[in-house]
Specification:
This protein has seven helices and eight strands, in the order E-H-E-E-E-H-E-E-H-H-H-E-H-E-H. It is an alpha+beta fold and about 180 residues long. Helix 3 crosses helix 4 and helix 4 runs antiparallel to helix 5. The longest helix is centred in the N-terminal third of the chain and has 13 residues. The relative contact order is 0.25. About 15% of the residues have low confidence.
């Protein structure tokens, strides 16, 4: 398990998460160090389609423009089918962490694919359970990682956007 510095925030709606990403971008946060995770739909909506052409992904559905914007802005994108949750959409470096965790059989008892990716960078299991619960209730996760100074700056910006919750996970605290 590597030790990364990160801040994880949950947002109740896609518009709140979108606003936070735009504020982080305005604040000079490196977009290559952001990930967003969510179901991408609500119970009254069905996924109409999803495809990948080269380095671009397209999602057809009620909030397709929301996901399309992230896939153009953030590095990496994927859709994972998770039992009990359905399709989970992920944009950013978390995609690689999830794939690496799954390929390396890092899945820890009781954690799903997203949790395995978060665990692989040092996020504590008790926090991961909260984040997976947020996904089950149709919330969105926004993850920023980097140096301790970068994640402190990101957390300050995130906190100004009124997330449902935000938690700083530093390598020093994880090691302790």
């Amino acid at each position: 398990m590597s030790k990364e510095n990160s801040v994880v925030a949950t947002y109740r709606t896609h518009s709140e998460a979108d606003h936070a990403v735009k504020e982080l971008q305005r604040g000079g946060v490196d977009m290559r160090k952001l990930s967003i995770v969510g179901k991408g739909y609500h119970t009254d909506e069905t996924v109409v389609g999803y495809y990948n052409t080269g380095d671009r992904m397209k999602y057809w559905g009620k909030i397709g423009a929301f996901w399309g914007g992230f896939w153009g802005l953030l590095f990496g994108s994927a859709v994972f089918m998770i039992p009990g949750l359905g399709p989970i959409l992920v944009a950013g470096p978390l995609v690689a962490w999830i794939v690496a965790a799954l390929e390396g059989a890092v899945v820890v008892g009781g954690l799903g694919a997203v949790g395995a990716g978060l665990y692989s960078i040092g996020i504590p299991k008790d926090s991961i359970v909260k984040y997976e619960t947020a996904l089950q209730t149709d919330q969105f996760l926004l993850i920023a990682h980097g140096t301790a100074a970068e994640v402190v700056k990101a957390k300050e910006i995130i906190d100004s956007t009124n997330p449902a919750q935000s938690t700083l996970h530093t390598a020093q605290a994880i090691a302790a």
